[in-house]
């Protein structure tokens, strides 16, 4: 038999390149490091050689400073002809005045036809400089654009950008705005996220210019939108012309509204048109509403009351005044909700209505302030079999107090004979008529027990008087 050492010598000491390529891909997708390719190349000489021959490892470009610009050319060469994901982060104060980073932008610009994703996080002056360097240049492979203004300077309207409508899919703007060379280039957008930007980005009349809006009627250009996030991106207040939605709701499946305000009549009207368009989507599955108040919330709830939503997968409410959630709002979601997520609000108006099993029968999960709770019912909401309160996890103290009060009312019925009518517990913060049907049953039962106790008291008083009369006659 051959020697064991000879057999071991025949086993390759390094895995084949195709196996290494799979290992590299796994590390690249899961690594927390910004430069997994450099970590891979530092493991061993063979790994380095294999990494240099794997173009997919070198397709993500990070620009964080203006040093060692020559390395950028080597990375671009190793990526061969594959699409590039470019992340530029130049938010340091010195880049307001230092422009050496433009050399890196010039090198990248020669490969602009390969840009698949572009993310720029920078101060106002840097955004303006980069915009100047790439404006009017076609980006035929760009799928995702993200522009974040890192400082709190004046919001810029950056552009024009030249996209391929059949390729450009995703847009995220934070504290800034952009415009395309032609509005039709936005037809393929499916995901739009606006954070502290402006509702003008979704105004068909202002897609190309804020200063010179289009006056004639136009059809919406964003016809493929499926996911929309609007966070503190409020309407302009000049009111000329009126807001006209730039998107078609036909394909919308997810909407999220947060921190919206309407301090003027023009703002209220613009939000009304926006809400009316976004919430009429026939394919909606996820709705999130957070930190909206005053006129913006009143207008939102008034639009909700006029809708009949399709079955929802998830409804999330956070930081809003729930006093306006009435039966009409609940009826708008008669199609059903699978998951209800509540945070930083008074949950009573919603939980009270959910006691009725006919309301949202498809509801499978309720989350309140990060804790999952059971669906309220007549049994677990008021009484438990042992007579003690069945507390819901993380329930508001005021709501729990009223649950305990009703339980005590049920336990001590005879003691209610002398209770004035106004002393019956009410659910603080619940609008008139909002108590569920079973509450009327409990009130009726309490009233009946009170009447029984009153009758018993009258009978006892009559017997006492009769006994006193007989005793007086006997003494006489």
Tell the overall outline.
elongated
Structural class: alpha/beta
Q: What percentage of residues falls in helices of 4 or more residues?
A: 25-40%
Whole-number mean pLDDT: 79
Per-chain topology:
Elements: H1 4-10, H2 17-30, H3 36-41, H4 45-52, E1 60-63, H5 70-78, E2 84-90, H6 102-109, E3 115-122, H7 124-134, E4 138-139, E5 144-149, E6 157-163, E7 170-174, E8 177-180, E9 191-195, E10 227-231, E11 254-258, H8 265-278, E12 286-290, H9 294-305, E13 312-318, H10 327-332, E14 337-343, H11 348-353, E15 365-368, E16 371-373, H12 378-382, H13 397-411, H14 437-475
Parallel strand pairs: 1-2, 2-3, 3-5, 4-6, 5-7, 6-8, 7-9, 9-10, 10-11, 11-12, 12-13, 13-14, 14-15
Antiparallel strand pairs: 15-16
Can you give a write-up of this model?
This is F-box domain-containing protein. The chain has 476 residues and is an alpha/beta fold. Helix content is 34%, strand content 18%. The chain is built from 14 helices and 16 strands. It has helices spanning 4-10, 17-30, 36-41, 45-52, 70-78, 102-109, 124-134, 265-278, 294-305, 327-332, 348-353, 378-382, 397-411, 437-475, and strands at residues 60-63, 84-90, 115-122, 138-139, 144-149, 157-163, 170-174, 177-180, 191-195, 227-231, 254-258, 286-290, 312-318, 337-343, 365-368, 371-373. The strands form two sheets. Strands 1-2-3-5-7-9-10-11-12-13-14-15-16 form a 13-stranded mixed β-sheet, covered by helices on one side. Helix 9 links the parallel strand 12 and strand 13 (312-318). It is elongated. Residues 382-396 and 409-439 have low confidence and may be disordered.
